[in-house]
Amino acid sequence: MYKNINIFTDGSCIYNPGPGGYAAILQYNKYEKILTQGFFLTTNNRMELMAPIIALESLKENCNVCVSTDSRYLKEGITIWIKNWKKYKWLRRNNKKSVKNIDLWKRLDLALKNHNINWNWVKGHSNEQNNNRCDKLAYNSAKNPTSQDIGYKLTRNY
Question: Which stretches of the chain are DSSP H helices?
């Protein structure tokens, strides 16, 4: 029997590009786990992707997961655009260049494999309590970076 997990995610960037952070709140029954990290140089979109990646990679067994995000880039990318990206070997059809943030899209695609996922878009800075918590956590991590986003440096020449 699969566990039902709720994951709330957000990414933040002080400048874009600039210092950034992500946050994920995982909830299972009455239990809660918070994952957050800051990077010295990255983009907001990369942090929006990192949050669900890290959250999903932290799950130790197959689960039913509802991921809530305020990022249309993340939700539409993973539910709509990724089908064509994979069909065209991770190239954008209009200019034959690699998909932006390809390293993270591939990593997210892999992290989804063992779970039943439902993607939920929520309006940012609204009354969704856990989205607002993630926003604050991600921003605080962006203000206090501790890590290098190696993928940003490797993939920034699109």
Answer: 44-57, 72-76, 82-87, 102-112, 129-143, 150-155
Give 51-85 pLDDT, tens digit per residue. Answer: 999 999 999 999 999 999 999 999 999 999 999 99
Q: Which residue has the tokens 């991590």?
A: 141
Q: What is the gyration radius of the CA atoms in the chain, in angstroms?
A: 15
CA 26 – CA 125 distance, rounded (Å): 19
- H/E element holding 117? strand 116-121
Angle between helices 129-143 and 44-57 (to 10 degrees): 110
Q: Do residues 40 and 148 lie in contact, with contact meaning Cβ atoms separated by under 8 Å? A: yes
- The one-character DSSP state at 94 is T
Q: Looking at the 3D structure of the chain, how many domains does it have? A: 1
Q: What's the burial of 103, exposed, middle or buried (CB within 10 Å: 0-12/13-18/19+)?
A: middle
pTM for the full predicted model = 0.95
Output the pLDDT for position 156. 67
pLDDT of 106-133, one tens digit each?
A: 999 999 999 999 999 998 778 889 999 9
Domain span at 99: 3-155
Catalytic residues: 10-11, 48, 70, 125, 135
